[in-house]
């Protein structure tokens, strides 16, 4: 029975890649599986430092904003037209319409680009469940003003990583993160959304409150906006959560295990 999950931060920048920090993307390893979780701009190169595209067991995409999915376009070329030995399309779990969105970007003539030759596409829905190797993936629809999902990745021994994707605080995310080993939560906003405006992201304070409400064992803040320093985001989140709070620094690997 596998009792360890490994989370490697490929990038955590928002809304565009910075020098030394790609957009949102993570490699999750455990249960004999490797999962690319979000594929924001610049993350494909960082992924290649750890695993080849044809060694992935799956790709999971939270939503179709470019800073979370743009590198699927270059991954498509890598899978079909480069030095990758693709025995079968890579499972790609993503929001409804992801296949047509990719084909729309990639098609440059009368014939639709064969995205299904590169990716075995599965459309997510609220409470979607899937198995990737020894990992169970549970997706919940979250509050981002568009089709968007959070993810719980769990080993057979119950070690769990919950990723907010992009989301405002919401009951679905809190429920998804209930008792999790680590909550990887976005903290994009330096200030709360203006009154009367629909929130679509967390502030650091929101991230701490979500972790506290979910009784998460650890909080890792990620997807910080350009007006937030990591140390400030950690400090502000920690004011609302008594557990350990860390920053998803690019290149960092977190080991998740039961106490």
Automatic annotation (TrEMBL):
Pfam families membership: Lactamase_B_2
GO molecular function, one term: 3'-tRNA processing endoribonuclease activity
InterPro entries found in the cross-reference section: Metallo-B-lactamas (IPR001279), RibonucZ/Hydroxyglut_hydro (IPR036866)
Taxonomic lineage: Bacteria, Bacillati, Actinomycetota, Actinomycetes, Kitasatosporales
This protein's name: MBL fold metallo-hydrolase
CDD domains given in the database record: RNaseZ_short-form-like_MBL-fold
Recorded coiled-coil stretches: none
Keyword field: Hydrolase
Domain Metallo-beta-lactamase: 38-223
Keyword GTP-binding set for record: no
